[in-house]
Design goal:
Growth Hormone, Chain: A; 422 residues
């Protein structure tokens, strides 16, 4: 409560804290804040568009699987390009490519398996260029003492846009249908939103070029043998990946099936309110590195409650509870996870005398393994058992598996503390 009182009494102090960061860190944060308006559209409404056009949850899952397949491939390509192309250009290219992928998807005459697959891989490539370079820049422009604040501020803004953007876009789609805008053609509304997304990607690309980031020297980044601490981090990455596939795919399917249309989708995403975002900022601003594990555990508990509510109730109310828990889970989990990952990279890269991108690249394959297993599980259950079974029980399975990540995270942090004392 003391931290809240201080922040409310001296709001300008928060601007001073931000301005005290090094310029490269500030430019990176501003770029990510602009792109944060794009991510909710990509993560929520692309899935809803596919669901509306195909009426097939498995098609949504296949699209997402194609996205996740494109990411590690692009991480590999990005590693080779970093020796020859400015990192800011690769970063901005990834953001622009996400807009182009959406344009391609919206202009497909029919959602064939090949068309959805190509659009998905292209979107995966955009994420690959974005996340590979974003993680590398975040690692090199922050240190362990500033990462709670960095990720707290970033997740605060992502949470705000995760509330505001779905509400605004969902309302726009609902008004399009109810008022007969564009002759009631919802696909035209989707295309207009896509144009807006593309404009934002251009703006964020301009901002990132306002700083000259140091060119990394990558003499090699492909390795297959790693320190035991990094292997534990990869297990944690795999478990995180299991949840990620569902967090992007399941909400759109569940809401379109059990709640309503895109207007409902935006309302349900936004209903958690601005209090969540403020709470997350406060955590990033006031918590210490030693408290990351507790933030991580809270996130896991929230996610499990949401999956159980959805599976037991399997109704509009259950979906609303699940989505509210999902909105809370992701930032809680990330504030605990990402600074820990970065600290592990700091230490292991020095021990093994390898560049940091080696671990950023390898980490992506840990995530991909989890995403692949999770999405294939959903597709198999939906195809061989039933769609309802997949939507009800696969999420509970994923939620229970997330609990297994708590002892792994504790062990990683314990090993980190021991190594730092040496």
């Amino acid at each position: 409560m003391n931290a809240v009182a201080v922040l409310l009494k001296k709001p300008t102090r928060e601007l001073d804290v931000f301005l005290a960061l090094p310029r490269p860190t500030r430019i990176l944060l501003i770029t990510n804040m602009i792109y944060a308006f794009v991510l909710p559209v990509i993560e929520i409404f692309v899935g809803a568009y596919i669901m509306r056009s195909s009426n097939d949850p498995a098609t949504v899952a296949r699209y997402q699987l194609a996205v996740y397949t494109g990411i590690p491939i692009t991480f590999l390509i990005n590693g080779f390009l970093l020796n020859h192309v400015n990192i800011s250009r690769l970063y901005s290219f990834g953001m622009l490519l996400s807009g182009l992928s959406m344009l391609m998807m919206m202009n497909l005459e029919s959602l064939t398996l090949s068309g959805v697959g190509i659009a998905g891989v292209l979107m995966g490539c955009s994420f690959g260029f974005f996340w590979a370079n974003r993680d590398f820049l975040a690692l090199n422009t922050t240190n362990d003492s500033t990462r709670n604040y960095y990720y707290g501020l970033e997740t605060f803004f992502y949470t705000i846009t995760g509330i505001v953007v779905p509400l605004a876009v969902g309302a726009f789609f609902a008004k399009t249908e109810s008022n007969g805008w564009f002759a009631g053609n919802i696909n035209t509304a989707y295309k207009m939103v896509t144009v807006g997304v593309f404009i934002l990607t251009i703006l964020s690309s301009i901002v990132i070029h306002r700083e000259q980031y140091k060119k990394p020297e990558l003499k090699g980044f492909l390795y297959f043998k790693f320190h035991s601490l990094w292997k534990k981090m990869l297990v944690l990455a795999g478990l995180k990946g299991l949840a990620q596939g569902y967090l992007v795919t399941a909400p759109a399917i569940l809401i379109m099936r059990l709640v309503g249309n895109e207007g409902s989708l935006g309302f349900v995403q936004g209903i958690s309110g601005i209090a969540t975002a403020i709470l997350l900022y406060l955590m990033g601003r006031t918590t210490k590195p030693s408290q990351r594990i507790y933030i991580f555990m809270i996130g896991i508990a929230i996610f499990l409650v949401g999956t159980l509510a959805n599976g037991i109730m399997y109704s509009a109310a259950g979906v609303i509870i699940f989505v509210l828990c999902k909105v809370l889970f992701a930032p809680f989990h990330d504030i605990g996870y990402f600074p820990t990952q970065m600290r592990v990279i700091d230490i292991v890269s020095k021990i093994e005398k390898r560049n940091e991108f080696t671990y950023i690249f390898n980490h992506e394959f840990g995530l991909y393994a989890g995403r692949f297993i999770g999405l294939v599980l959903f597709i198999v259950l939906a195809h061989d058992v039933s769609e309802e079974f997949a939507l009800k029980y696969a999420l509970i399975i994923i939620g229970l598996l997330q609990v297994a990540s708590i002892p792994v995270a504790k062990q990683v942090i314990s090993n980190l503390n021991e190594m730092e004392k040496q």
